[in-house]
């Protein structure tokens, strides 16, 4: 251990302990002997497995974040809260003619939202309350365009006094919208070409080529 | 925020930006690329490699880290395991990423009973970390043939032609399937799938969803798997051994219940290995962009069962892994940052490679700069080169980075680094296992009834993978493996045994191979780098 290492005192899962400075919450847990597996995923802030709740020194407010991204500072009091329960509706979207119209049937609690804003704790900085308002008002495009970055960590759901799971509501809308969009013309054209065996002559030409001929063909294509 | 020592170096990057802006750096001729790779690419660092002494690939070259695992005993006392199957199913899928879930969905669609077991949570995988996009030849100027040629060329003509052909031909159809289940790919004004170019690709072929492509596909797949009753999902239950019958055919697996800390057996008519790659083995000491679970379990299990591996001496080191701050080391900066004009700059403020060279060449060039003393050192002693992101902002207009790379922008804002004003310190990060378990066009390995899909499978990408091809191959071969595995549901699975493991152990002992490693690894030994 380097002599220059600075130490800080933090409270990890209710245990006051001295740790080296600069560790993330996950690293601090590992360092102090917690064999954390349930709340670990990508370690890059993308999978949403390692949700944490914390109070910073001198603050009066409980905050939320991701354990692999939150760097521990002096006086931090933090617990992990992975896998917070949220209700996900079960549905077969392909069986619905207009899934958007059935949103209310699958997530009726959405319409009890009174826009309290408690869900605005998103580590991806999504304005969750805003998205829910769009969803409630039927502006689905506006809702969907704001949740591309949702990592499904469920922190918003953990704060909702009405037990709405905004991450699942948003996902439903994203999927439903995608299904209602017209089929992309460029893909339709390509599929038709593949189906009518438009590339067969080219394939058989290539199949007969040795590696050197193929390399020459590649070089020619790169030039185009 | 950057410390003082790095801010001095950033000043050099800022001062040279104007000069570098118009500078055109020619692409290296083939011979020079070859030389660069031989000298600096980790795949050519002979000290990092040895030849396997046992198994189907005896004599083949691989890294010490992987050879250690393949030539190892398990820490499992096989004689103490109750091999009476606790579960019985048609198809057992191991792995809960894109390939595994796709395989499970297609196997179920054929009427097979499916169990999907995964080490971590369902969906915790490298799939969600695929930022850039997926290759599919849908553009008018493009064709599956062109895609085929590009893929082979990127892989230095070592990919298996029939597998590459299968992948590119299935590409457009698999995109149709993704659209059908509700994946919302970015569109252009006419409603076409929006396509982009990338390094080593001769036509616009990358389709994406913002810079969170894999994540948004995985969200939909997870939602889809929830709908039916036909797939039982077992989380926190990694496979520690495959089982075979008297004919050496695969017929199940021994899983480890992480919560109860006990082993149990699932018997199946077919097994699909989709547990991903091996980035978390940190080969040759490199940082990794991979998720926590990527410890190469698939190749270890399959190898003991007798499966042939392919190309296990070839790995992809993504040129731009984060090197500062410490807790983000190894995290990927997407290739799109270079496609859009982000320059690689050394400590002297000079460029040293055309940024649109293939990934392996860029990585080798960065390693060269750092070894020759042109790298930039962080307070904790790590070395890297700058990726000039402010230049992208300057070229494309204010607010571009925040709009185009919202996730990356946010991740750095959390640590008070504004990537539109400050460059990023980067160094190659272990990103992808180019090889894996050899499969055929249906996804089956050389062991009967054992399938592989996704990064675990090998033979497709040759010695270097082009951007966007892995996000394609997981769906193409996941689907194919799922469909073919489901057809085996009328098989008689036979007795569940570990005969192949005992035979493997006998070989190890007779060759006097003793190893301190135990495998599979399951979880990386985490070394907190700051201590």
TrEMBL record, chain A:
Record-linked SUPFAM superfamilies: 2Fe-2S ferredoxin-like, alpha-helical ferredoxin
Keywords: Iron, Iron-sulfur, Metal-binding
Record bears the keyword Ribonucleoprotein: no
CDD domains, sorted: fer2
InterPro entries noted in UniProt: 2Fe-2S_ferredoxin-like_sf, 2Fe-2S_ferredoxin-type, 2Fe2S_fd_BS, 4Fe4S_Fe-S-bd, 4Fe4S_Fe_S_CS
Residue ranges occupied by any 2Fe-2S ferredoxin-type domain in the UniProt entry: 6-84
Residue ranges annotated for the 4Fe-4S ferredoxin-type domain, each copy included: 140-171
Top-level taxon: Bacteria
One Gene Ontology term of the molecular function aspect: metal ion binding
Name of protein: Ferredoxin
Automatic annotation (TrEMBL), chain B:
Single annotated GO MF: oxidoreductase activity
Pfam family, one: FAD_binding_2
Keyword Nucleotide-binding: no
Statement: the UniProt record of this protein carries the keyword Iron-sulfur: no
Occurrences of domain FAD-dependent oxidoreductase 2 FAD-binding (ranges): 90-471
InterPro entries tied to this protein: FAD-dep_OxRdtase_2_FAD-bd, FAD/NAD-bd_sf, SdhA/FrdA/AprA, Succ_DH/fumarate_Rdtase_cat_sf
Keyword line: Flavoprotein, Oxidoreductase
Active-site residues per Swiss-Prot or TrEMBL entry: 359 (proton acceptor)
Cofactors that this protein relies on: FAD
Superkingdom field: Bacteria
Name the UniProt record assigns to this protein: FAD-dependent oxidoreductase 2 FAD-binding domain-containing protein
Taxonomic lineage: Bacteria, Pseudomonadati, Thermodesulfobacteriota, Desulfuromonadia, Geobacterales
């Amino acid at each position: 251990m380097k002599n220059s290492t600075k130490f800080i005192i933090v409270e990890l899962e209710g245990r006051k302990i001295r740790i080296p400075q600069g560790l993330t919450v996950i690293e601090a847990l590992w360092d102090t002997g917690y064999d954390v597996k349930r709340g670990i995923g990508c370690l890059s802030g993308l999978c949403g497995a390692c949700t944490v709740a914390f109070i910073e020194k001198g603050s009066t407010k409980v905050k939320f974040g991701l354990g692999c991204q939150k760097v521990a500072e002096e006086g931090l009091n933090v617990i992990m809260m992975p896998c917070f329960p949220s209700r996900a509706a079960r549905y077969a979207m392909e069986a619905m003619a207009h899934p958007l119209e059935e949103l209310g049937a699958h997530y009726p609690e959405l319409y009890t939202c009174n826009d309290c804003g408690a869900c605005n704790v998103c580590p991806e900085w999504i304005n969750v309350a805003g998205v829910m308002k769009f969803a409630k008002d039927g502006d689905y495009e506006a809702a969907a365009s704001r949740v591309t970055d949702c990592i499904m960590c469920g922190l918003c759901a953990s704060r909702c006094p009405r037990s709405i799971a905004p991450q699942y509501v948003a996902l439903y809308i994203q999927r439903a919208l995608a299904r209602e969009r017209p089929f992309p013309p460029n893909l339709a054209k390509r599929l038709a070409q593949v189906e009518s065996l438009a590339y067969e002559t080219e394939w058989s030409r290539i199949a007969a080529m040795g590696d050197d001929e193929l390399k020459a063909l590649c070089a020619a294509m790169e030039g185009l | 925020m950057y410390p003082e020592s790095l801010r001095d170096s950033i000043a050099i990057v800022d001062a040279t930006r104007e000069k570098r802006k118009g500078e055109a750096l020619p692409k290296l001729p083939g011979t020079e690329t070859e030389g660069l790779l031989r000298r600096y690419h980790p795949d050519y660092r002979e000290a990092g490699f040895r030849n396997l002494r046992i198994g189907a690939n005896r004599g083949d070259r691989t890294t010490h880290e992987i050879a250690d695992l393949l030539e190892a005993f398990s820490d499992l006392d096989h004689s103490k395991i109750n091999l009476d199957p606790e579960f019985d199913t048609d198809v057992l899928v191991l792995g809960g990423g894109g390939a595994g879930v796709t395989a499970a969905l297609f196997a179920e669609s054929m009427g097979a009973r499916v169990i999907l077991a995964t080490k971590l949570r369902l969906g915790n995988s490298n799939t969600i970390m695929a930022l850039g996009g997926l290759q599919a030849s849908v553009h008018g100027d493009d064709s599956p043939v062109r895609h085929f040629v590009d893929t082979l060329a990127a892989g230095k003509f070592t990919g298996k032609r029939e597998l590459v052909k299968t992948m590119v031909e299935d590409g457009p159809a698999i995109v149709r399937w993704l659209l059908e289940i509700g994946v919302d790919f970015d569109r252009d004004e006419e409603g076409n799938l929006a396509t982009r170019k990338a390094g080593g690709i001769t036509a616009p072929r990358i389709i994406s969803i913002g810079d969170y492509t894999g994540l948004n596909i995985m969200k939909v797949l997870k939602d889809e798997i929830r709908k039916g009753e036909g797939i039982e999902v077992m989380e926190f239950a990694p496979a520690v051994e495959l089982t075979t019958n008297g004919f050496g055919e695969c017929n199940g697996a021994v899983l480890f219940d992480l919560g109860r800390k006990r082993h149990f057996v699932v018997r199946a008519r077919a097994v699909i290995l989709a547990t991903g790659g091996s980035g978390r083995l940190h080969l040759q000491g490199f940082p990794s962009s991979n998720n926590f679970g990527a410890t190469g379990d698939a190749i270890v299990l399959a190898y003991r069962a007798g499966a042939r591996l392919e190309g296990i001496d070839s790995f992809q080191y993504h040129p731009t892994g984060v090197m500062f701050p410490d807790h983000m080391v190894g995290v990927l900066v997407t290739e799109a940052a270079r496609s859009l004009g982000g320059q690689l700059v050394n400590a002297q403020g000079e460029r040293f490679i055309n940024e649109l060279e293939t990934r392996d060449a860029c990585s080798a060039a960065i390693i060269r700069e750092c070894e020759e003393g042109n790298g930039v050192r962080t307070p904790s002693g790590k070395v890297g080169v700058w990726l000039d992101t402010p230049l992208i902002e300057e070229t494309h207009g204010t607010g571009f980075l925040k709009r185009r790379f919202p996730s990356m922008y946010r991740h750095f804002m959390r640590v008070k680094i504004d990537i539109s004003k400050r460059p990023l310190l980067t160094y190659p990060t272990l990103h992808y296992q180019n090889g894996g378990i050899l499969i055929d066009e249906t996804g089956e390995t050389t062991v009967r009834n054992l399938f592989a899909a996704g990064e675990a499978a090998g033979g497709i990408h040759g010695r270097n993978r082009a951007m966007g091809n892995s996000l394609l191959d997981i769906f193409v071969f996941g689907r194919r493996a799922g469909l073919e595995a489901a057809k085996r549901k009328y098989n008689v699975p036979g007795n569940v045994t570990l005969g192949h493991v005992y035979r493997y152990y006998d070989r190890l002992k007779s060759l006097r191979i003793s190893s301190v490693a135990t495998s599979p690894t399951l979880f990386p030994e985490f070394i907190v780098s700051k201590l």
